[in-house]
Design brief:
The protein is about 70% helix and about 0% strand. By secondary structure, it is mainly alpha-helical. It is globular, with a radius of gyration of 15 Å. Bound molecules: fe (ii) ion (2 copies).
Length: about 180
């Protein structure tokens, strides 16, 4: 799997993927999820993030996938649902917990599972990530997965709002769910 992944992704993306795998495994041990599944989900979460967007769209067409309007207009998020399908077809993953964590790692969803949250958070804090505020996210992830997840969602919503980009309704659903159920 690693060889295949290495061949299809840019070196930096591959390095990021392995960082997410290791971070996700640590978080799984810390918060009581299946560490092997977390490692695999982390490793494959960006498996459909092919360097050329045209190749991602070709892959989506091959699988007969259609996207909602907002996803279609944010090409950067297509690789997540596409990745779940690709992990199943190309890497032989059939575990729903893993496939869901891949599918929702970019925009989130309401009522995310522990595995979903682990991959979402690991994606933002793995060792090669370097942005203002990442230290705070890492500290939160050392203590409480929900606090870390909320802080990561906030980071994503603020980032998109500042850029005046659209915010996917799933992200807002994830946010509202956490505000109502924390
Ligand atoms: Fe991603
Ligand atoms: Fe990623």
């Amino acid at each position: 799997m690693k060889d295949k992944l290495k061949k299809t992704l840019k070196p930096k993306r591959y390095q990021h993927s392995m960082g997410v795998a290791k971070t996700a495994k640590k978080l799984a041990v810390r918060f009581g999820a299946d560490a092997d599944k977390a490692y695999l989900a982390g490793m494959l979460h960006d498996c459909a993030k092919l360097p050329d967007m045209k190749d991602q769209l070709k892959l989506a067409a091959k699988y007969g996938m259609e996207f909602d309007e907002i996803t279609a207009r944010c090409p950067a998020v297509i690789h997540a649902p596409l990745g779940a399908r690709h992990a199943r077809e190309e890497y032989g993953v059939d575990d729903v917990e893993i496939l869901d964590a891949i599918e929702f790692h970019t925009v989130g969803r309401a009522d995310m599972t522990l595995m979903d949250k682990i991959i979402y958070v690991a994606d933002m804090i793995e060792p090669t990530r370097d942005f203002r505020g990442v230290g705070k996210l890492r500290r939160l992830a050392g203590k409480n997965i929900d606090d870390a997840f909320i802080a990561c969602l906030k980071e994503s919503i603020e980032h998109n709002a500042k850029k005046e980009s659209v915010i996917h309704p799933n992200t807002l659903e994830a946010w509202n769910y956490m505000m109502l159920h924390r």
